[in-house]
């Protein structure tokens, strides 16, 4: 009875309007009734069991620290719901339908119980070479958070999100993010995560006319993680890059779902994933590109490369294309490789040790990803 009372209070938070409560209730109902195939295809989710509602507590706010220039508006979720402009934005995007609609159980859990969050509003015409930084440091049993990033017309902005957790007793840390790139906006977003406890990321991006978003998901060795990254290219000549740079070792596990939905004509998408697996680590990568009947002259590519270093390391790759018109260019490819003995010998013959030689080879393998990032601060972190 106490837990039921807590669940009811978390969903029907007094600060939330009716439309938000309805969406949260719908997510909870979906969570309770959800059944997933855990063996194969786009719906495989073998790493995360359905979230246990018994872990819910009164205080589940995920600590989020944001550093940004003064002319970038940072508004808490509670404050935003009192401002008509922001409430209308939230109403449109907070419960945005996903393509495809099926989500992992962790996503419905997050959508039902998000307690707090922030809007980061980048104004029209904003240009600044310094990145906006988002630091997330989970420190409790269960913590959930929300971000909505609104990039107005003609702005150019970069973000660095550092998602870390050093508390191994944490049950789950999870973040939902909406990114809205309005017409002619250019957004670069780099997410760095390294956690000793389970964490989950749910991201939905909407891109307007002639706008561009470059997104890099860099897993630097999390114990157990899952990312669900989805983008809708709404506008004409809209562009997106989904990139993943993954390095796992020991028994670390990472599950990635990356989906791009083309709606606008002349839209362009690129998926690029580079994965290095050592020891007994295991990664799952599922990529879906959907081009609808109105997205004439769309161009789309998927490429997933894996470097296997451990004899027991494992990669599952599921690339998919769904194309509903003939006036498109689309392709996908996957490759699994090992360290080339000749490359290793060459570097060792120049006086480098075996570990040094392997590191150089691995950096070369990852280079096609980080070279696409223009933010100098993000590149410096990736190469450190």
UniProtKB/TrEMBL annotation:
Give GO terms for biological process.
Answer: iron-sulfur cluster assembly
Domain SUF system FeS cluster assembly SufBD core as annotated: residue spans = 137-365
* A Pfam family the protein falls into: SUFBD_core
Which superkingdom, per the lineage?
A: Bacteria
Q: Which family does it belong to?
A: Belongs to the iron-sulfur cluster assembly SufBD family.
Q: What is this protein called?
A: SUF system FeS cluster assembly SufBD core domain-containing protein
Q: Which organism is it from?
A: Candidatus Abawacabacteria bacterium RBG_16_42_10
